[in-house]
Amino acid sequence: MEFGLSRYGQPVTHLFPTSTGGLVAEGDLYSRFIGFVNALGLDPGLDIHGLRRSYATHMQTVYGYDAKFISMQLGHAHEATTTIYTLPSPDFAASEMERVLSKDLLRSKGKLLLKPARNQGRASR
Q1: pLDDT below 70 — which residues of the chain?
Q2: Angle of the 48-57 helix axis to the 67-74 helix axis, nearest 10
Q3: pTM listed for this prediction
Q4: What angle do CA 103, 105, 109 make, to 5 degrees?
Q5: How much is the pLDDT for 67?
Q6: Vertex 120, ends 119 and 121: CA angle to 5°?
Q7: Which residues have C-beta within 8 Å of that of residue 82, sequence separation ≥ 6?
Q8: SS3 for 76?
Q9: Where are the beta strands (DSSP E) in the chain?
Q10: Ranges of each domain in the chain
Q11: What pLDDT does 25 receive?
């Protein structure tokens, strides 16, 4: 806002000001967004809030930004609120599990591949 909206004067208090100093109506934002969704052939259920969730998820899971930083960007008072937004995709979850398990396997120098020894005696009661 500091750099992109400076032509509207200081302080900038609204993210979507009009050239006359008013605000773009919420209905206008929504209808333009739906128009873009349709024109691009995106999922009809996509909404503006979905983009916010997607942004938060990508910032944390793909780019590794700290949850506190993302919380601050989203204006959340608590990081726990942000965790609601950051739902990794199944592809990301699978690749992350593979990365972690591969790292652990390499660190174990193959010991994780060995079958655990079975107790040959009777179980004590």
Answers
A1: 1-15, 17, 110-125
A2: 160
A3: 0.51
A4: 115
A5: 86
A6: 95
A7: 56, 67, 70, 71, 74, 76
A8: coil
A9: none
A10: 1-46, 47-110
A11: 79
